Amino acid sequence: MTDRAAVESAIVDAHRREWALVVAATVRVARDLDLAEECVQEAYAAALESWTREGIPNNPAAWLTTAAKRRAMDAVRRDRTFRSKLPLLVEPDVSVEDTAMDELQRESEDPEDVVADERLRLIFTCCHPALAQEAQVALTLRLVCGMTTPEIARAFLVSEPTMAARITRAKKKISGARIPYRVPRSAELPDRLGAVLGVIHLLFTTGHTAPSGAALVKADLVDLALHLTRMLRELMPDEPEVRGLLALLLVIDARRFTRVSGNGRLLRLEEQDRSRWDRAAIAEAHDLIVGALRSGQPGRYVLQAAIASLYAEAPSYDETDWSQIVALYDKLLDVWPSPVVGLNRAVPLSKVSGPEAALAEVEALESAGQLAGYQYLPAVKADLLVRLGRQPQAAEAYQRALELTENNAEREFLSERLRSVQ
Predict the structure, then answer these.
(1) What's the pLDDT tens digit per position in 23-64?
(2) What is the pTM of this model?
(3) How many whole angstroms separate alpha carbon 420 and alpha carbon 299?
(4) Rounded to an integer, what distance in angstroms lies between the CA atom of residue 286 and that of residue 190?
(5) Helices (DSSP H) in 254-317: which residue ranges?
(6) Is the alpha carbon torsion for 274, 275, 276, 277 positive or negative?
(7) Exposed, middle or buried: residue 328 (CB in 10 Å: 0-12, 13-18, 19+)?
(8) Distance between CA 121 and CA 101 in Å, rounded?
(9) Other Cβ atoms closer than 10 A to 41
(10) Distance (Å, rounded) from C-alpha 298 to C-alpha 289?
């Protein structure tokens, strides 16, 4: 018998690290998203008893994948009418049982597959053009990243019931539109690229600053996003936006180990030790950005990467080229008119035109209401109010930001800022 606490810890770790792989592999057998999720959840539940009795396997992912696939296979065998109920998830003129058995026994990837990694395969499947882009992203975060519905809702700035309904509709759309579960052909990849990039970027963002919990960073999500982006670049090496996304992730992640102090206190960009930043990653990002800019009109990821690169390459925070950053944000707003971009632009704008001008921009965004649940809006507003000497209003804004924030490191930082103006 193995200690139950050790087994529970191993299962939690396997969920964090291997969920995406297990789900993606099981979908290939089940040919149905809900069935695959159900089988994977059952496999994790079975692991608790089996591993306690027989010991934790050397390869938990392989054990879980086999267990989930066998459950999917059993479900297919029990339901001989599977093809008539869900024809969209079955390739035409192929026996479901034969296909599932073939997948269960297959040990290696099909050499003809365009997408080699199971997780990237599943992302491309979820990002079918028949689905709305927000539904594509939400469904992929649920299936590939194992994020909970509340976590995805926070990432999208919507309520939990709204997000739950969105995910349900996306699954039904896959059924109603007769979308097959298969690897997209090379010619189909560009049509799905925007959604795939959006999924990976949101995955990285969720790992870079965890929506909730004690740790600021979820390193496994950050590493997964970087892995998938590198694989996507191998798949589509000539796409400027793929290079732009990889550059963006590299240059932001280069600061990973300087974002909190030794005692866990969140450090602002101006407080971070730049000598500890990953200069090799920053240099790689710079080369990617230059190459992408030469390819023509830059898109949102190339421009975001260029902005992040200017921050990273400045000798010090005060020596940042604020004017150039504002100019890049203006271009970014042209290609991606997002209120979050407008909010991010307010910080360098305050350095160029003063905090009063930046505050006017933030208050306009606040009045528009699109960022009502976004904790960084009141946080940015509070910082600007402090610079203007308006401490009572700053305290109100910090309090609002604190109410919207669930990450412990960010909450402690905001609490400290609130106390400083009271």
Answers:
(1) 888 887 887 788 888 899 999 999 998 999 999 999 998 999
(2) 0.77
(3) 40
(4) 24
(5) 279-293, 300-313
(6) positive
(7) buried
(8) 19
(9) 14
(10) 10
